Amino acid sequence: MLTGILAEEIARRGPISFHEFQHTALYHPEHGYYRRERDPFGARGDFYTAEQLQPVFGLLMARTVERLHERMPARFEVVELGAGREEMRSYFERWSYQAIESGRGQLPAEIHGLVFGNEFLDALPVHLVRKKGGHFHEVSVAGYEGKFQYVEGPCVKGKLAEYLAKHGQHAPDGGLVEAHLDAVQWLDRLSAAVKQGFVLFIDYGFTERERVRFPQGTLMSYWRHQADEDVLCKPGERDITSHVPFTMLIDEAKERGFLVERYESLAQLLLDAGEPDQFANVLESQNEQEAARRRGQLKTLLYGMGETFRVLLLSRGV
User: Fold this and answer.
1) Stretches in the chain below the pLDDT threshold 70
2) CA distance 175 to 44
């Protein structure tokens, strides 16, 4: 259905930006991937996040939040971005938990506490550009013979050009680059809202030194736990993600007055939370089958996801 809607729009207007294509594919009010009734998470969905590894992930993250709360004991609330099925609610509800979805829910005008985003940034739509001879050209999406294809347009301008002047100069010539303007806009919103407290992002991504690993960008689609580089196929039926450029995120956060407290692997954050009691609290169970399940979750978090995902902790006024 969404394929036909996008094809008609392209036929009427001509090629559209990849940002518009991805935004429509993910967030179309009726046919978007994250707006359909089908649950994308878990064994019957298309992918797992750490939040499906419960209760171990929730207990360890609650302990992390407890430590942050100790640093500002008066007023403390938790706002989760991209909350999905709200699997963290039972672990965070003691802190006046509020769930925010992209396009659903309103970011509070003032936040004193923690903004938590697990795999939120990677699902934000991006602009796609190609570097040629030192110049960036926006890559758009056109439809020919029933199949969507990339087409290159003129040199970028405006905010996109400003972003690439700051964060795209080390991109390889001829390579594709994702411009995460939506992530920058979210930092603007958080900068205005967070009066005192923390922002904690958990996601997969790279630093500027690691960009060489991705000469053709990092865009990927997921369907039934299978990854595919063809992100133009079957819009609305597959997730579309990109790696988070953490160097960009850190630089932009500092410009907005945030202090970077931690940038590390998810495994290190979870180890810090669990080591004081050797993970006894999260592994304890009267049922041996449940205890074994928890041990499996902890192993996946520490040695699977834990080495792949990065953690960025920002603070302000603490």
Assistant:
1) 38-49, 102-105, 224-225
2) 35
How far apart (Å, rounded) are the C-alpha atoms in residues 42 and 101?
Answer: 19
The residues, ordered by sequence, that sit 6+ positions from 134 with a Cβ below 8 Å of its Cβ are 173
Global pTM reads 0.91
d(CA 245, CA 272): 25
50-122+184-204+245-316 under CATH 3.30.460.80, yes or no = no
The domain segmentation of the chain, as residue ranges, is 50-122+184-204+245-316
Q: Which residues contact 255 (CB under 8 A, 6 or more apart)?
A: none
Predicted confidence at residue 315, as pLDDT, reads 98
Mind listing the pLDDT tens digit for each residue in 39-95? 555 445 444 567 778 899 999 999 999 999 999 988 999 999 988 778 899 999 999
Place of tokens 């907005």: 256
